[in-house]
Amino acid sequence: MPVTRRTALRGGALAAALVATARPAFAAPSSRASADPLKTIVTGYRELQTGINRPSPERTAALRNLGRVAKSYYDSMTVSGNGPLWTDLPLGPGSDYTTSMYARLRAIAVDWGTPGGTLSGDPKVLDGIKKALELIYASQYNPQVGEIGNWYTYEIGVPYYLLHTLVTVADQLTAEELARYVSPVKRFVGNPNLRANNPKVVETGANRADKALISIVSGALTGDTAWIRTGIDAITDVAGGGAASVLAKLDRAAGDGFHADGSFIQHDTIPYPGHYGIVLLTALAGTIHVTEGTEYALPDDLKQQVYALVGDTFAPFVYAGALMEPVRGRMLSRQGETGHDIGHQLTVATLVLARSATGPVKSELAGLAAKWIKEGTYAPFLEIPDPERFAPGPDLVATPGIEFAQEMLAGRVRPAPIVAAHRIFGQQDRMVHVTEGWSASLGVGSQRISRYESINGMNLHGWHVGDGVLYLFLPNAKGHYSDAYWPTADPALLPGTTAKAGPPGPLAGTPLTTKAHVGGVRWDARHGAYAMDFVSEDGSLSAKKSWFFTPSGIVCLGAGITDASGQAVRTTIENRNLGENGRGTLLADARVVGDSSTLHRPRWLHLDHVGGYVLLDNAEVTALREDRTGAWRDVDTGANTKGTTTPNTRRYQKLVIEHGAKPVDAKYAYAVLPGASVVGTVASVLAWRVRANTADVQALRLWDNTLLANFYSAGTVDEVSVSGPASVALGRNSVAVSDPTQLQDSVRVTVRRRTVEVPLKDTFGATKIVPLR
Prior knowledge:
Blueprint: H1 37-50, H2 57-75, H3 98-113, H4 123-139, H5 151-169, H6 175-189, E1 194-195, E2 198-202, H7 205-222, H8 225-235, E3 257-258, E4 264-266, E5 270-271, H9 276-291, H10 300-314, E6 318-319, E7 322-323, H11 339-356, H12 359-375, H13 399-409, E8 421-425, E9 430-434, E10 439-444, E11 467-473, H14 485-488, E12 498-500, E13 518-524, E14 527-535, E15 541-549, E16 554-563, E17 568-579, E18 586-588, E19 591-592, E20 596-600, E21 604-607, E22 611-615, E23 620-630, E24 648-661, E25 666-674, H15 678-683, E26 689-693, E27 697-701, E28 707-711, E29 715-717, E30 720-722, E31 726-730, E32 734-738, E33 746-751, E34 754-759, E35 768-771
Helix pairs in contact: 1-7, 1-9, 2-3, 3-4, 3-5, 5-6, 5-7, 6-7, 7-8, 7-9, 9-10, 9-11, 10-11, 10-12, 11-12, 11-13
Family: Belongs to the polysaccharide lyase 8 family.
InterPro entries: Chondroitin_lyas (IPR008929), Gal_mutarotase_sf_dom (IPR011013), GH-type_carb-bd (IPR014718), Lyase_8 (IPR038970), Lyase_8-like_C (IPR011071), Lyase_8_alpha_N (IPR012970), Lyase_8_C (IPR004103), Lyase_8_central_dom (IPR003159)
Keywords: Lyase, Signal
């Protein structure tokens, strides 16, 4: 997607309060309950741009900052002659700058239409908006232009910005003018079910939802009720018999859309709850909002399905108001869309949905939004301190977001509590482990799910983000991955990965691995195991990797590490962003470690404000503290998303296990203890009971005698035997089993001389519980 989803306006929302002229085309009614459904839709969409005029100090501060940006765009805009509106955005067919032109104009229009805005109601500004609309229409976006470059620009990106602008000034335009400016949208989005530049492509997921909302609003602006109905029907794919319905739940691995286990996929093989899923949710929330109370309103059963998505698909991957990195795809490289930025968009979409929900559902949605706002102290939701950092985008964040949040918070909503959880999303090869103090997730790839996505000039350091990265989210480091992490972190030494030194090789677009064995088993809300049959992208390095999750930490095992390339092979325990000029003492067996040290067989390590690490075998560990400098442009050169060239320097603490060159069947074993004290770290040195760590099976015995095991083939560990690859959790009265390969019909499990056949066909990595009594 060529534009980011967080805006210089930090988003959109629509209020009325525009300066009236003699005969406005869409005068805002005194309330949303208009007898004219077209006016209701336009007014509703205006609310999603300019807000509901709910005064507060936070709104005033936000408007001041947003107005500064809008005024700078207006002051530098030239509408006389045939030249470009802005000197740095040249005109021309297929221009890479068309999206930015409309985005800047949107910023001006929304500020003009927002009560209290810097440009609010200024007739000269309105005149400039009108002239700019005509100039860009004539030169850049009209029914005669051809799609050059990224299809998204013509079919979603520009239409959204154009509609944001048009609904804001709709009262000031004639029906003929509205029809003229919407005419290219009709050409490119007249049928939201199909790709305009290739009608053989049926739209799915977020793209379909975006086009549906675009159709609904465009139809309302032009009085085209058939277009509105086409947009409504596109949501459930009436034309295609429901095959591409954005609300259908797929029950298989991969494939665009929502899945039965809560997964969300876009581009067929990329887990995307942290971007496209939220884009889709935002479009659905907007659709519900603008059509509420009209003949086009979604049926209640469909609305309930939308409401349920928030808790099932998105909430598990939110930490401190931010979306976790493993579900953000290539978007993690966007300077203007950190995990906190997309988290803000999720929050506003949830707030918009809560406004139409009732009863317990309304309370649940409001409670989640209140939780994310309360916990998001790194990037406070109610503040917009630096709007110039963000590229404009069709978000539902900003003044409207602030107003919706304060409207909700005024009702004394109780924030949802933190609840321990361990969830495995087998249909997108993702998992999440939540405790009351910290959370974790993994970035992996398989035959089903790409190891990374690097397209449109984005995610240019993404070589290893799907090679078994262990992401830790800590309460005293809520901005860890948002604080210039991706342009400055060493991309070859990401925590949890086993990789070779030396040049990483060229990036692919969305590469799959050659291995099917990726997945795990859930024992309960606080325990689980996950396995990965790893092979490097060039096929030369292989390893079996396991992670065992508990309330106090994660035990990481590796075995069968083999490589013939001759390059040094390393497993990274930690590569922590300490911030600019960051501090924090690193101890190894009670001794202070210098900036660069080789540690011979340490038993434990502890890093201030991060936690402890226990070495469970005789490993050589390199500890290196270094400053690294990089710019966001290094990781994102996209036409409309490219980062700045401003250098960022961050200090990192690396802990690396050295396997040497050409290792054969090398291994590692260590525990990561997030937030642990020095005393707690030392006390846990003898607490971890590794029962096996081979290329065939890796297993851990818990304190209560529960056994967690990952089998890569038929085998035995302690009192458990399996007939084939499986992840197993064995307790006193039951055994939990899953098939990480997602290829087997069943697995025979023998426990204490009792054998059971566990059916696993079409479970797609889900855990099956078998009682033993």
